[in-house]
Design brief:
The chain has helices spanning 11-23, 55-62, 82-103, 139-156, 178-185, 204-217, 233-244, 254-271, 279-286, 295-301, 308-322, and strands at 2-6, 26-31, 46-49, 67-70, 107-111, 124-125, 161-166, 168-170, 191-192, 198-203, 223-226, 229-232, 250-251, 291-292. By secondary structure, it is an alpha/beta fold. Residues 3-226 form the NAD-dependent epimerase/dehydratase domain.
Length: 323
């Protein structure tokens, strides 16, 4: 098969490229001229350069392609450029869908997020759940929800598109939580906020496998939640502590964390700086809880991920060899 991966140089995209190449597929990667290509250094991927909203470049990249995997996204919480995030996540997705429809790709797999369900208030939900949160927790929440709505519209029009909805994506080269784990393994993470926060976890390679299974077996218009399970941040650090002997970080006082977010947020905006805490980040830590059930992907796609504990143990093992 010949496959196109948008955002091929990113965390999820690069692991997907490698998984496709290991299968013997021909892979085209859609990246920006300014993209850091280090993650693709050992790959044979053919690169096409362009902005995600550049339909001509997308058409060039999709010519002769069987599968399209749309993983490109502006992913960030806190202080973000909301207009740019909308351009990339919403209008970029629209462009990918329009070009895929025009050239007649056999299957498009869209990498969404369980965040489209909004705050489920701790209720475990599946793909049939209808979002009840009427507002949005931030620009990322809003733009990914809008993008999913557009994907659903194109599916209703007959585009063979399948949506994959991953929970928290983990890996040794994870750019988001990876640095936190590295700090923990060095013994430098003494304090942490939000130990009760529930985090869904899926290994990035299991996510890549799920996306390939979705291309092979996923029914057009369907959504598949991708999560190996969830646990609280405190439980996660307890598992890591049992593996390593490193003490679990002490819980930071909630009022102090909220105060820090309220203080650092305007300072960050003034200085064009991404602070470690902001109002949106504090909101995600204390006020929003999304829990999901990935039974459908296991049953319909035959997806069989490693467990949460296996995922964490493997990441720790790799990080230790790299340190």
């Amino acid at each position: 098969m010949k496959a196109l991966v948008t955002g091929a140089n990113g965390f999820t995209g690069s692991h997907l490229v490698k998984a496709l190449e290991q299968r013997g597929d021909t892979v085209v990667g859609f990246v920006r001229k300014s993209s850091n290509l280090q993650r693709l250094s050992d790959c044979q991927v053919e690169l096409v350069y362009g902005d995600i909203s550049d339909r001509d470049a997308l058409k060039t990249a999709m010519t002769g392609v069987d599968w399209v995997f749309h993983t490109a996204a502006y992913v960030e919480l806190g202080l973000v450029d909301a207009k740019e995030m909308e351009r990339v996540n919403v209008e970029g997705t629209r462009a990918v869908l329009e070009v895929a429809q025009a050239v007649g790709v056999a299957k498009l797999v869209y990498c969404s997020t369980i965040g489209v369900f909004g705050d489920t208030k701790g209720q475990v939900v599946n793909e049939t759940f209808q979002r009840q949160q009427t507002d949005f927790s931030g620009a990322y929440d809003s733009t990914k929800y809008q993008a999913q709505q557009i994907v659903d519209q194109f599916a209703a029009q007959g585009l063979p598109v399948v949506s994959i909805l991953p929970s928290g994506i983990f890996g040794a080269d994870d750019p988001h939580f990876g640095p936190v784990l590295k700090q923990f393994l060095k013994g430098g993470l003494k304090v942490w906020a939000g130990g009760d926060r529930i985090t869904g976890i899926v290994h990035v390679d299991d996510l890549a496998n799920a996306m390939i299974l979705a291309a092979q077996k996923g029914q057009p218009g369907e959504k598949y939640i991708i999560s190996a399970g969830d646990l609280s941040t405190r439980e996660m650090f307890t598992l890591l502590s049992q593996d390593t002997g490193i003490p679990v970080p002490v819980e930071a006082p909630k009022p102090l964390v909220r105060l820090a977010g309220n203080i650092l947020d305007p300072i960050g905006r003034l200085l064009n700086w991404q602070p470690p805490l902001s109002r949106e980040r504090v909101h995600y830590v204390y006020d929003r809880c999304v829990r999901v059930d990935a039974t459908k992907a296991r049953q319909d796609l035959g997806w069989n991920p490693r467990s949460v504990s296996q995922t964490l143990s493997e990441i720790v093992r790799i990080m230790k060899t790299q340190s």
